[in-house]
Amino acid sequence: MSNTNTPSTRRFFGTDGIRGTANTAPMNAETALKLGQAAGLCFTRGAHRHRVVIGKDTRLSGYMIEPALVAGFIGAGMDVVLAGPLPTPGVAMLTRSLRADLGVMISASHNPFEDNGIKLFGPDGFKLSDETELEIEALMDSDLSAQLAKPAKLGRASRLNDAAGRYIEAAKASFPRGLRLDGLRIVVDCANGAAYKVAPAVLWELGAEVIELGVKPDGVNINRGCGSTSPSFLSAEVVKNGAHLGLALDGDADRLIIADETGAIVDGDQVLALIARSWHANGRLEGGGVVATVMSNLGLERFLASLGLKLHRTAVGDRYVVELMRAGGFNLGGEQSGHMVLSDYATTGDGLLAALQVLAVLVESGEPASQACQMFKPFPQVLKSVRYHVGAPLEDDAVVAAIVQAEAELAATGRLLIRKSGTEPLIRVMAEGEDRPMVERVVDGLCTLISATATRLRDATSVENVA
Predict the structure, then answer these.
(1) What are φ and ψ of residue 315, in 5° steps?
(2) Which of 89, 114, 218, 465 would bridge 350 by S-S if both were Cys, CB 3.0 to 4.6 A apart?
(3) Are residues 336 and 385 in the same domain?
């Protein structure tokens, strides 16, 4: 289920909202104001008083983006509820529980502090469809002055002081009744991001001894050397503190990476396998399978097959995972990168809720994490990226022929995946199979050819421009 919209038809929204370098178009106050006005007008339908919930992570630029959005929504006649720093799934949850018309999360997730982003949720707590995003973009490109609210119809802004508390209670309610975390020493790395208060609180209130990392945000240290994108930091601290488990979240806490008691990293595929086996055994798994992306390891697919379950793959992006889950009646999905969607409890990825399901298995089984979290032996998987500038290297005859040959070579014991990045001018080449040397040779050969083709196309374009 790939996004078929092209850059020419989508000026602002990408695969996960709007994202870019802070204070530079499109991630500046001007765009945020226009977005607030357009989204506000798009979702002010009906005679009721309209409401939008806005949350954010800890980036310095949030202080610029938030008031611009507030001004736009108020100008469109919407009341604004400010939740402050809160995980993305917390904003989705509040949007539904407060019966708001719209939810907004200001975050660039796992990106460095220089970036920021804006994600939108509908009244059902799910991310907006491509069609709705295009409708908002069309409004942003139009003259909205005549449609904005009259002075007496302007919205108001208020702060929801117990936003964090509401999310904490919702997270705790997802943990199996009657279980506790007493006796477990857990390291939690909050990436100096949105979960820096709520994640340690949930774990401590459930009984764990909590060692907190990445809980001192200063506006510029989000994801810096910590969190799910820097798991080596978590691993070292788990071993140093003799912890039973380590949990690393990203900047907006919608993804999870685990370190077991030995410091070994457990990725999203293993977490999916663990939760799937547990839920399947308890009769809780719906749809007869799990939804993941094309990036998930073949080992996960074969492990699920051994349980009589099927792995359903989508394009990369948690929004596509959620779309297929909703269409197919599945309640578990996720990505190798750590996005875990547990639709019994949340409408979007939630790293903390996924961690609690893993912890429930550890408590019930009594097994160490190194045993419980290694569900299958991953196939050797190699992923590399090639940067290109102009043209379409993947359409070159030599590249097409090489890809066909590589697919035939891997067909019996592996697979090949080649795709363009949705956010950068990169071509990603991934292969996996039983024979690591062969996988590495296939990926290296294709990357070399694609790179040379990209350089040739760039040079040819430069000559044409000079001429």
Answers:
(1) -65, 165
(2) 89
(3) no
